[in-house]
């Protein structure tokens, strides 16, 4: 079978040349008879030729000895089957390997070809699964080369760790240890070449030819990552370039060749050797020759039947398995019978028949589904066809191992050891295709198997990179991997490598997203007043898509407190120039440059009517007082009156060249229109006759509003003036001048004594209509003021400005109380609801919006009424909320939200309610303390900064500006003592539950506890680094909570056994603190706008609410489930003691009317933003 290798050509040629030269020389001299030398040569020629002949014979003998094999050809052992079954032929099976002689010879010839370039010495055998690629190489080519004195290195199979296979090869070649070898091939591009060179040096094989075999290279595609594949092939290519006497022979399934050609080092695979199907004559040899060696014979005609049944391209592994089973079933006589052949199921059915038998056996203890699910663990799926997957035994449960052991005993599976770890795999992939139950499962689970293969490839990338964080999954990829893994594990197809990757990715992703959530929270808190809608969107996304963080939750609460939008009215195709709220509050009307007017439902934001008829842009709209009709002004030069219920046109009134404004009189009798021709026209709404044409402006007339008495009309013009017209005479009553640019906005106060105007000079002016004088100028708004409205409360005005914002001002305090932000372009118009609580606006962005002036966040109730900060808050003995404000009022709130008000000329500094009587102590900024609720208003002098009533109601303590604590006997209205010791103002007081002790906190940073029975003594507690602002006793009287301008809360153990507990979490001065009735929790309020509840056992605080300004005071309601707070934002609010995040995000969804853009998500690193 093995052809002799020819002697080296240079040796044969040299011997031939010597013989020829000797013969020529001898002939030359032999022809010269006169020469004595010739005579001598003639005498010596005969012996010389004889010697030359001997030399040639000996030389060729030496050559033959040199080429003689060093390794004996393997022979078949009688104790082994001559048929390997589903396993590939190995070198030890060379004696029974038949049928591929021509292909072996051709491959050997190609391996002997000279190859200068490395790729020229890489031979790749391709073929379908089951075509015998590995058998051809190991049982055919390798033994032949060994006989030709080649050095054949141990075969390398990529498996799940290709570089690990090279490291194992290096250890076999003599490397110190696997770890160092693996490190070298991972870090040095020429690591394998260096190992082979060192092996040559150690063994003396410096010049001999070396063959490296790479088996099942499809595993570079199915089980390895792209990075590992590139690194592996890079090592092989470097070896071929470094050592020109190294050849590589590889095998790969043909369907994966394209993947390798498309990857790194495609030159290695440029000239594959295709292995086709066997001819029938070769199949006869495959069947008969091994049987002859083993002494087995076939019944007549059986070989022909077997060959005829082996007709399909993938039948070789089936044939090999059948022959093995026939041999084992032949018995002592070693006769393969047709009966045995048919019992096994023939070539096509033997494999499936055997698998069915095994399944029936294991099904006694396991269900079919469980068995097939276990076998699916041995399947990889990269493309269309399944491939084998090695599974470490340690990854299998005891039950799974029991099942696979039975299949292994039936020679359907094989076990081996790789990298020191035992594993199991299918003996041949034919099992996937030929056994129907498993084939059906593979087909049904193909997508799941592909996902597992892809996941394991990602995991291999990660492991190959040293578990680098750069290879962890993020964003959508991680979410996808998580879904895949859960589906796999629920189907019993777990993958430890994939699980490790996903867990590590989630851990890193969780940490990253935690930082993202905190960063978003900080951004939102810093920009909540400028970008409330964006803040709501971002914080909602952070809480929904990232691990919830306190700062994100707090930011969402703050965003809700600043998010005024209730609805976005979208439908117009151009700028919304005019808005008007119906007098019944049910509808909002809009007019647009798209030439239409629309009527919207104010609560749902849905369109009720679309009014079409104008041939030009609609500039203004206004409702009739009975809400039944709507008037519109258009650039087509007309004012139209519509039936609001039917959208029918009632009348069309000419209004100059371009109509700019329109307004109904409050009594409904008149309709006014303004125009570009500098005139104002007034019609009688009964007859629709023009009653008055008002002339006096010297520019376009825009804004138009009737006075509440319907007898006067104010018009605003581009001539920078506002004229108040007396409609009884048709003459100007006042001309208001002072603006430095056009005036388009005008509105009356509810009592008709004031006008507010807005101008292109970016200012707002409040005018006394009687005198025509400017009462207030509200400074620069940063953009032109296009529209104004005055609220029914007589103190609130709303402005629409060119920067797209709506500004809400308190005209008494000349203070902006809210900015409504959300429009993307200029805000053209604004209108207030009849109750003054909501605002409608129209914008150049093509939308109208409905806003609430007082938005709700996480609070359950908002109490409004103070005209400035709430400075003090207490509960009376019936648990009613009592607040005092900088406006000098004290309000006792009823359950329905109304209040009984008492007023002073000085701001309220502190409050205290008697626990036994309906008496309220009020400290004012002038230092006086008033007792109200008694027969008369009693005044106690003392310049009080803080107040506290004893539990029995008999004494009232006041912390004073003279650094003392004064105690009064309420019954006698006389002093019960003065406590001295503080070095600065006493700003906080609290009686202990028993009434024996009084605690005081001071601006001197100390807390003192006074024993009222021994008033000369006090215990001093130091530790705060700034003013002490609040005190509260625990119900057990053993603990005292204090809060300070140093941003902390301290809980003092008054038994003296422990150091104070310090609670940190607020980001500004902490103004108020109070124990819950259960004595386990504390509530605190801070200048950082937050209200927090603390569990003193774990030192953790939870933000339960956020005000629009600092929190000044608070108290627990008796139910222990709610906290009420007072704030510098002018409100008191009631909060639940904990926040439901789902409820919070649900509320947030009602405040936003768009999604985050891709750019916004990317900027803030949210998942799915393209940053993964």
TrEMBL record:
SUPFAM superfamilies: P-loop containing nucleoside triphosphate hydrolases, WD40 repeat-like. PANTHER family: F-BOX AND WD REPEAT DOMAIN CONTAINING 7, WD40 REPEAT PROTEIN. InterPro entries: nSTAND1, P-loop_NTPase, WD40/YVTN_repeat-like_dom_sf, WD40_PAC1, WD40_repeat_CS, WD40_repeat_dom_sf, WD40_rpt. Residues 82-468 form the Novel STAND NTPase domain. Transmembrane segments: none annotated. Gene3D superfamilies: YVTN repeat-like/Quinoprotein amine dehydrogenase (2.130.10.10). It comes from the Bacteria. This is WD40 repeat.
